[in-house]
Amino acid sequence: MDRALYIAANSARHAELAQAVHAHNLANVSTDGFRARFADTLADAVDGSGLPGRVYGVSKSPGFDFTAGTVRETGRVLDVAIDGQGMFTVQLPNGREAHTRNGAFRVDSAGRLMSEAGYQVVGGSGPITLPPYSTIVIAKDGSISVRPQGQGAETIVQVDRLRMVNPEPEDVERTQPGLFTSLGPNLLPFAPDVRVQSGALESSNVNAVSELTEILALARRFEIETRLMSTAEDNDAAATQLLRIG
Amino acid sequence: MNSALWISKTGLSAQDVALRTISNNLANVSTVGYKRDRANFEDLMYQIQQQPGALSSQNTLLPSGTQLGLGVRIVDTQKEFSVGTLQITEQPLDVAIEGRGFFQILLPDGTTGFTRTGSFQLNENGSLVTAQGYELNPAITVPQGSNTVTIGVDGTVSVSQVGDPAPTQVGSITLVDFVNPAGLEAAGGNLYRETAASGAAVQGIAGTQGLGEVIQGALEGSNVNIVEELVNMVSTQRAYEINSRVVSTADQMLQYITQNI
């Protein structure tokens, strides 16, 4: 059997997988705080007997693009965008920490500060709970201060400070929708230098033009592989024809 | 089947919901007391094809495995309770809340609804009612023969009778606040209902405990920002187009393979 058929079929399958990565990025072109995934093709040589021609193209998705997305003004105090690198910390129901770039926070009925997906936002001393307040301010360094309900403007209480981390891209992985978790056994250290901006949100960092170009290029690659498959079939048909003559 | 097809389908349906939210905001750009909605997106789960952190040899780890995302979904639509622009109407029964707080309305089924729309009218008994005819709770009745109605910043309603120099207090508009107003259920008709997410209604006097003051002769306009909504509409439309382009590309690939093999 001609193995060119298998090489072409495998490459076509991996072109489809890479396309799924780009389609996922494009589907999240409006998801706040989303980080685009990369898709690469590696040469995977599986040499056996004969000529060294068995090199499969294998799709890999090696991590995330950590460049910052566009920050847009929303005017809502509990919308917080991170200036440059860094991430917010939230607590999962099992008590473990996870991290996100999406700072669209809200306050639930018990006064707990929650992330958009419904996880508690973590501060310097565990999950943050706000007292009943009339105004709230989130400072550049993530400090949260409120004017408690019924108090005058002279009473400003500092509640907590957002626990922000600044991991290296290779130290975190996507485990849950919208969240990153640390790959190591320890908690990520607090990064006091991370700056935030209240009243703004960070848009997705997906570059729609390059993603769409990649999709179209992969579609063409898929066609070429298909063409190779039909050529391999033609070769087989010709060989069968020869045998019939003999 | 080609998974890109299903992934971009999630993108199409999420953008569709986003556009519906935007069009509802734009339709309510002149609705008194309307609060805009915002559709929030979240990426769906990832299928792990190759585990990150697995051994790539005896002493090395895979820095990042192969994880294929499954698309996007709308996680929620969130009401934004920022204060709209106050419009001066000079109608004595138009009341706006400058700051936090809601009026309480007695609904026909006996439960209490909450609203920011303060365009009140009098019904046949002289009670203050909303445009739908629902009474304010606690009810305030303006006696017959009243000359002027005055509503103070703390919600006190007083009337002056013809020939009587001293005004009479007929009631007080109390406001309520919620810990999490975004958790209220929008019931339509400018009304909201209390839910477990909003927390219990905390009653108070206007201008105290963080509640806003009551302004007579003014109405709170919608807090929809037309420019922002139109910009959102443009980006939503383009995102929709891009995702439908992925669908057609995936379709062409399937077509090509069925025709050529």
What does this structure look like?
The complex is a heterodimer of chains A (246) and B (261). With 246 residues, chain A is of the alpha+beta class. In chain A, 25% of the residues lie in helices and 30% in strands. Chain A contains two helices and 18 strands. In chain A, helix 1 packs antiparallel against helix 2 (208-245). Chain B is of the alpha+beta class. Chain B has two helices and 19 strands. Chain B has a four-stranded antiparallel beta sheet with strand order 8-7-14-17, with no helix packed on it. In chain B, strands 11-12-13 form a three-stranded antiparallel beta sheet, with no helix packed on it. The two termini of chain B are 16 Å apart.
N-to-C order of helices and strands of chain B: HEEEEEEEEEEEEEEEEEEEH
**Largest contact between protein chains?**
A-B, 62 and 68 residues
Strand content of chain A: 25-35%
| Average predicted local confidence, pLDDT of chain B | 88
What Rg of chain A is obtained from the alpha carbons, in whole angstroms?
26 Å
Output the number of helix runs of chain A.
Answer: 2
* Approximate helicity band of chain B: 10-25%
Question: What coarse outline of chain A follows from CA principal-axis ratios?
Answer: elongated
**How many E strands of chain B?**
19
Question: Beta-strand level of the residues of chain B, as a percent range?
Answer: 25-35%
Largest sheet of chain B: 4 strands, antiparallel
Spatial strand order of the main sheet of chain B = 8-7-14-17
* Gap from first CA to last CA of chain A: 19 Å
Count of helical regions of chain B: 2
**Number of beta strands of chain A:** 18
Distance between the termini of chain B: 16 Å
The averaged pLDDT of chain A comes out at: 87
Oligomer state equals heterodimer
Main structural class of chain A: alpha+beta
